[in-house]
Write a structure and sequence with these properties.
single chain; 128 residues; alpha/beta; Rossmann fold; five-stranded parallel sheet; globular
Length: 128
Amino acid sequence: MIVLDTHSWIWLAGGSDKLSQKARRRCNRASILIVPAISTWEVAMLVHKGRIGFDRDVRLWVGQALTLPGIRLEPLTPAIAVRSTRLPGDPHGDPADRMIIATAMEYGAPIITRDKQIRDYPHVRTIW
């Protein structure tokens, strides 16, 4: 089981070469790839702000990207929401990233991320 950071999910779904070889290998070997629900919101906001674009409506893209083999949408549970406010140390300040970190901690799973702030956070395992 692996948690995908939002950009990792986008790159995996799109077949982008931006995903590191190590991350791609781990995705290919994992039986479950968790996409935190907050990532669907992040993708929609990135499209809304013009930071990314797809060849189809974002709602359709999200729906299709959630049907890829091994992908499991993980809802934002009360436990994850509360945990995101109680992260030890000096965690990432972005609320969405805090929820992604909390999701990984809740499941004891590593996060596939290029985000240096998440990779430098000592309380969660990462893959890049």
